[in-house]
Design brief:
Blueprint lengths: L1 E2 L7 E3 H8 L4 H11 L4 E3 L4 H12 L5 H12 L4 E3 L3 H4 L7 E3 L1 H11 L4
Parallel strand pairs: 2-3, 4-5
Antiparallel strand pairs: 1-3
Helix pairs in contact: 3-4
Length: about 120
């Protein structure tokens, strides 16, 4: 896992890059790539031995394959929050990562930054 300092709070994985590379909308793919460039953590393929069993555990809770990989890489990258609008993923509960919708995340983030 590679960490950069002072670039924000995003975690990007090899799987996110793979999915974006398959994006047929080149304009969207470019914007997503630019968003990924500011990631503070990159979870690469060397973590597959951790990702696969974690993915299987998450799938057993009813989460689809690709979403389970994203959640597993977020957990391995030590994300505090997994931000999504997917209702099925939002139902996933874990002590290792909090699934949260963007609006709730912004409320929490603004509350933490009120005094700054």
């Amino acid at each position: 896992m590679k960490r950069k300092q002072n670039y924000g709070f995003k975690i990007v994985s090899f799987f996110s890059l793979f999915e974006n590379d398959a994006n047929k909308d080149t304009d969207k793919a470019e914007h997503i790539s630019a968003f990924f460039e500011n990631a503070s953590v990159y979870v690469d393929e060397t973590h597959l031995t951790k990702i696969i069993p974690l993915r299987d555990e998450i799938m057993a809770a009813g989460i689809k394959h690709k979403d389970a990989i994203h959640l597993a890489t977020a957990i391995i990258g030590e994300a505090g929050y997994f931000i999504t609008t997917d209702k099925r993923v939002l139902k996933y509960k874990s002590e290792r990562v909090s699934t949260i919708n963007p609006i709730e995340f912004i409320r929490i983030w603004e509350g933490q930054n009120d005094d700054k």
